[in-house]
Amino acid sequence: MPPSAAKQAPRVRTLRPAAPVAPVEEFFSPDSLAKRLDMSRWTIYGLISSGEMAPVLKVSSRCVRIPASTVAAWIASRLSHGHPAPANAAYFFREGRA
């Protein structure tokens, strides 16, 4: 039997992470965010269009996702200007969030 025909043991590769993995941020669709904040989805779309709620992640031409950190910054901005907090605003300031 030629040496090339002999079966060789499979190589075992050990994978090591290059760097510590950061926690994953939560993202919201405009509809789910509107429900969570008790607002209309058109209000959320208006905030995105005006740049008041930015940055957002544009997944495709018709799909956007809003990071929890963006929502927390928008709520903080509203509060600093004397506006009332939207419903369920405390959710975005819990431990481990934005």
Attribute tags:
98 residues; alpha+beta; 32% helix; 11% strand
Description:
Strands 1-3-2 form a three-stranded antiparallel beta sheet. Strand 2 and strand 3 form a beta hairpin. By secondary structure, it is of the alpha+beta class. The radius of gyration is 23 Å and the shape is elongated.
Q: What percentage of residues falls in helices of 4 or more residues?
A: 25-40%
**What is the tally of beta strands?**
3
Taking the alpha carbons of the first and last residues, their distance comes to 64 Å
What order do the SSEs take from the amino end to the carboxyl end, as H and E? Answer: EHHEEH
Query: How are the strands ordered across the major sheet?
Result: 1-3-2
The helix count comes to 3
Question: Main sheet, how many strands, which sense, barrel?
Answer: 3 strands, antiparallel
Q: Strand portion, in percent? A: 5-15%
Overall 3D form: elongated
The CATH class of one domain is identified as: Mainly Alpha
Q: From the coordinates shown, what is the CATH architecture of one domain?
A: Orthogonal Bundle
Average pLDDT score: 84
Spans with pLDDT under 50 lasting ≥5 residues?
Answer: none
CATH third-tier fold name of one domain: Arc Repressor Mutant, subunit A
User: What does the radius of gyration come to?
Assistant: 23 Å
- Class based on secondary structure composition and strand pairing: alpha+beta
